[in-house]
Amino acid sequence: MLECMTVKKGMKCPFMTVKGCKFNGGTCHPIVEQCEGCAHVMETESGKYCRICPDPAAKWRLGKCNFATHVKNGNGKNGNGKRINPLKASKRKAKGK
Question: How far apart are CA 72 and CA 5, in angstroms?
Fold first, then answer.
């Protein structure tokens, strides 16, 4: 991997080649509003960018970004905060309760 020569100068980038950045548009895209507060956001002189994803808007199109450190994941819990046993839940669903 070569170091980025566009917006994330000095960071290793899988899209960087000897001829330049081969990512869509030739450079990484700035973060979107949903990314504010994430630990992966880095600020450069040209703006704020994600350290991991070159196109943050694409990660948020179908829901929550899987790299987001500032968004809590509610999987495995019901409305009152208790953990649900998935085996018991599937059996209840099969019985129709």
Answer: 34
Do 77 and 89 contact (CB within 8 A), yes or no? no
**Tens digits of per-residue pLDDT, 21-79?**
888 888 899 999 999 999 999 998 889 999 999 999 999 998 889 889 888 765 545 55
User: How far, in whole angstroms, is CA 12 from its chain's centroid?
Assistant: 18
Tokens of 83: 């953990």
CB 54 within 8 A of CB 28: yes
Residue type, 18: V
CA distance 7 to 29: 9
Per-residue confidence (pLDDT) for residue 19, from 0 to 100: 87
With vertex at residue 28, the alpha carbon angle to CA 63 and CA 41, rounded to the nearest 5 degrees, is: 60
**Is the separation of the CB atoms in 49 and 28 below 8 Å?**
yes
